[in-house]
């Protein structure tokens, strides 16, 4: 699976669980850690975990099993390392506090085709 296909699956999984303000950055040639960085906001801690579970389920459906989740059950921020794609899922307050988007200013913001229901 290409990193772009993995990104697309990730964004689809986030959409299915109604992640908000989802952004992705193309860091190819800039970061040695991953090709894409994704950030999204959950309305609650419960939704945060639902988004993470949705991503894991979606990648399993497509035969990808190599991932690592950082954070705890009570965290307001979970990170999923999918190898070529790094996903950060925050509660709104945690996202505002950490402001990770500033770290990725050198990357190209990816145009996401999100449903605007």
TrEMBL record:
Give this protein's Gene Ontology molecular function annotations.
ribosomal large subunit binding
Q: Which InterPro entries match?
A: Iojap/RsfS/C7orf30, NT_sf
Keywords recorded for this protein, A-Z: Cytoplasm, Repressor, Translation regulation
Q: Which domain of life is it from?
A: Bacteria
What does the UniProt entry say about where the protein is found?
A: Cytoplasm
Task: Tell me which GO cellular component terms the UniProt record holds.
Answer: cytoplasm
Record's subunit section? Interacts with ribosomal protein uL14 (rplN).
Q: Which family does it belong to?
A: Belongs to the Iojap/RsfS family.
Q: What is this protein called?
A: Ribosomal silencing factor RsfS
